[in-house]
Amino acid sequence: MVLTNSLVLLAVVTALTIGGDYLIKSATIHVAGMGSGLFLVAVALYALSAFGWFFLIRHHPLTWIAVTYSGATLILLTLLGVIVFDEDLGWRDIAAVAMALGAILLVETS
């Protein structure tokens, strides 16, 4: 699998996961909770992301996939929490995001 295609697929998997996380967070606020349509759509998004994982894992080392995905997810979920859900961002959170970026750089340059 060409790296460009892999990066696009990884971006799609990440977007599906972020969308699912957004919907789950929204469902926790909703009266119906896990019975809400928000939660069910989130589960469907997670299931779709599994198909992308299958193809990524087939062609790449888990280290590359996991670090890149985890770093991107951490950064995007942090932004989602702060911007959309008005969550606080402390110095430890900022340090964690910085370390995630460092891990991505280490894996990408090896």
TrEMBL record:
<keyword id="KW-0812">Transmembrane</keyword>
<feature type="transmembrane region" description="Helical">
    <location>
        <begin position="36"/>
        <end position="57"/>
    </location>
</feature>
<keyword id="KW-1133">Transmembrane helix</keyword>
<dbReference type="InterPro" id="IPR037185">
    <property type="entry name" value="EmrE-like"/>
</dbReference>
<feature type="transmembrane region" description="Helical">
    <location>
        <begin position="89"/>
        <end position="107"/>
    </location>
</feature>
<keyword id="KW-0472">Membrane</keyword>
<protein>
    <submittedName>
        <fullName>Transporter</fullName>
    </submittedName>
</protein>
<feature type="transmembrane region" description="Helical">
    <location>
        <begin position="64"/>
        <end position="83"/>
    </location>
</feature>
